[in-house]
Hints:
4-stranded antiparallel beta sheet, alpha+beta, two-stranded antiparallel ribbon, Ribonuclease Rh, Chain A
Amino acid sequence: xxxxxxxxxxxxxxxxxxxxxxxxxxxxxxxxxxxxxxxxxxxxxxxxxxxxxxxxxxxxxxxxxxxxxxxxxxxxxxxxxxxxxxxxxxxxxxxxxxxxxxxxxxxxxxxxxxxxxxxxxxxxxxxxxxxxxxxxxxxxxxxxxxxxxxxxxxxxxxxxxxxxxxxxxxxxxxxxxxxxxxxxxxxxxxxxxxxxxxxxxxxxxxxxxxxxxx
Length: 214
């Protein structure tokens, strides 16, 4: 019996480290959150069919892609939850200014939010609270003109604008030479923290283009 328990524990740990689906998680079984902010102009330009999407029609700048439970190595996903899979329209009225798509909200809840151990209502309010703690330097993220900046420069500007945020706690994601996302590591109480694994996956390009929202 003890050997079987040890085997199940080892399998669960290995699955979590690899980001494998199907393992239940509670609020105390992951290490921290990753707040992922998506730069809308890059996302909208990647597919012409997205032009009718609310995010693109309204010429959004950053939106919240997700608030992801994360371990120091790997992450849980698609956890079992007693909460509903669908996100109600009443919740979208609360978070629509930071996450404008009900499809995105539903996917993020099922894949990541259910692993937080929180109720759906608490999770999305925490997501919005996390976004509210971030200061985005207007000098680069006003969306008025196309820009090209070094990845290191973006990280430096982010750390200067957000006291307590260190370079190893923020990662830049790029796609086709353009800024895709900024990912910020936060504790469960939404303080900034270092996250080596996330930081190592930062964009390897020296610089990225930041398309305008105009």
